[in-house]
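To: structure subgroup
Subject: Chain for Friday's discussion

All,

I'm putting the inputs and outputs inline so they're searchable in the archive.
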Amino acid sequence: MNEDLAAAAKFKRIATIIFIVFFSLTIILIPVFAFLFDNYWLLFGIAFSFLGYITKNLKPEKIFFVLTIALIIYWFKVGFHFSDPVTFFWFSFLFGGIFRAFVIGYDDLAKKITDTMAADMTAEIISGIKSRQQRMSDNKDDE
């Protein structure tokens, strides 16, 4: 049981490390790209990145699919340039969503382990109570 608890703690730590990496990369890479492309409007990519991280909990698959199709059409008309603000904001949003998916996966693994442990502990407690009640009723019968 302690091994399960240690595994759950490891998964929680991994999820925390992934968030720290996401936060660090967002804060470092987006300003670097804005400087390299000489377009400081790209700094709004930080907000889009965190927006992607936040909205991943809402499960926006249909909206995501429609926006991706619209973006592909936009790329056919305008051309694909990573320095284009629309493209950059989309990839920032996607970056946040992907990292959030990793965090959700590791959190779910940790939750599954702790839920299984809680169910096992509850079963042990109930069987202990039943065995104690059985012993108490046996003692009353002996008297």
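Points worth raising on Friday:
The chain has a mean pLDDT of 83.
The chain has one domain: 2-116.

D.
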